[in-house]
C-alpha cells in the first residue's frame, strides 16, 4: 500500500481524534451528572423522611402554635406522597446504572484513542497510511447500543477542554475574557434549563419542609397562609 499523506487525510485524522476525545469527555461528564442526580435524590428523600418523623414529634412535644391539626395531617400526607413519588421516579431513572454505562463507554473510547495515537506514530515511522476507517468503525461500534449524552454534557466537556488549552497556550488576557463571555452567553440558557429540570423539585420540597418546621418552632413566619 502506497504511503499518501495529503492535507485532506491529515484533517480527517485530526478531526476523528478530536471527536473521539470530546466524546470521551462528554461521556465522563454525563456519568458525573447522573451520579450527582442519584446523590441529590437520596439526600432529598432522606430529608423529607426525617421531616415526616420530626413534625409529629414536635407536635407531641408542644412545639406547634401556628398550624391546626388538619394542616399538620395534610402536610404529612403531602410529604409521604412526595417521598413515594420521588423514590419511584429516582428508582425508575436508574441513575447509578446509567452512570456506570457512560463511564464504561468513555473508558472504551479512551482506549481506542490511545490505540489510534500509537498506531499513527508507528505508521508514520514506517511510512504507511493508518487505517482510519477501521478506527472510525471501532468508535461507532462503541457508541452503538448506548445512551446518548445530553447537550449540557457536551457544553461542559468542551468548556473544560478550552480551559485546559488556554492554560497550556499563551493567549492574551482580553482574548480569554472575550471567549469566556461569548461562551457563557451562548450556553447560559442550556445551563439554566438543565439545572431547573434536574434540581428544582428537590430544592422546592426541602425548602418547603424546612420553612414548615421553622414556622412550627416560631423561628419564622414564612407560610402564614397555612397558619391558624
Q: N-to-C terminal Cα separation, in Å?
A: 88 Å
Helix content: over 70%
Number of helices: 6
Quantity of strands, as a count:
0
Number of separate domains: 1
* SSE pattern: HHHHHH
Label the structural class.
Answer: mainly alpha
Chain-averaged pLDDT:
87
Rg, rounded, reads 26 Å
* Major sheet size, sense and barrel closure: none
Shape: elongated
Unreliable parts: 170-174
**Which range does the strand content fall in?**
under 5%
Short characterization:
The protein has helices at 7-60, 69-93, 95-125, 132-143, 151-168, 173-216. With 228 residues, the protein is mostly helical. It has one domain (7-149, 200-226).
Secondary structure layout:
Layout: H1 7-60, H2 69-93, H3 95-125, H4 132-143, H5 151-168, H6 173-216
Helix pairs in contact: 1-2, 1-3, 1-5, 1-6, 3-4, 5-6
Descriptive notes:
The protein has one domain (7-149, 200-226). The protein is 81% helix and 0% strand. It has helices at residues 7-60, 69-93, 95-125, 132-143, 151-168, 173-216. By secondary structure, it is mostly helical. The longest helix has 54 residues, at 7-60.
Amino acid at each position: 500500500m502506497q504511503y499518501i499523506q495529503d492535507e485532506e487525510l491529515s484533517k480527517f485524522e485530526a478531526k476523528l481524534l478530536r471527536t473521539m476525545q470530546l466524546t470521551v469527555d462528554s461521556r465522563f461528564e454525563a456519568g458525573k451528572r447522573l451520579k450527582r442526580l442519584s446523590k441529590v435524590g437520596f439526600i432529598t428523600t432522606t430529608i423529607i423522611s426525617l421531616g415526616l418523623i420530626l413534625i409529629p414529634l414536635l407536635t407531641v412535644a408542644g412545639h406547634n402554635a401556628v398550624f391546626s391539626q388538619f394542616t399538620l395531617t395534610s402536610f404529612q400526607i403531602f410529604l409521604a406522597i412526595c417521598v413515594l413519588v420521588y423514590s419511584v421516579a429516582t428508582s425508575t431513572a436508574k441513575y447509578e446504572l446509567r452512570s456506570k454505562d457512560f463511564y464504561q463507554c468513555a473508558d472504551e473510547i479512551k482506549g481506542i484513542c490511545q490505540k489510534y495515537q500509537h498506531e499513527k506514530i508507528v505508521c508514520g515511522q514506517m511510512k504507511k497510511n493508518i487505517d482510519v476507517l477501521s478506527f472510525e468503525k471501532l468508535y461507532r461500534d462503541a457508541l452503538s447500543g448506548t445512551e446518548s449524552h445530553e447537550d449540557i454534557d457536551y457544553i461542559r466537556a468542551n468548556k473544560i477542554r478550552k480551559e485546559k488549552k488556554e492554560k497550556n497556550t499563551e493567549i492574551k488576557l482580553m482574548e480569554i475574557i472575550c471567549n469566556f463571555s461569548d461562551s457563557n452567553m451562548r450556553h447560559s440558557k442550556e445551563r439554566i434549563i438543565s439545572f431547573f429540570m434536574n434540581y428544582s423539585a428537590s430544592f422546592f420540597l426541602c425548602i418547603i419542609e424546612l420553612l414548615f418546621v421553622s414556622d412550627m418552632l416560631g423561628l419564622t413566619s414564612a407560610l402564614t397562609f397555612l397558619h391558624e
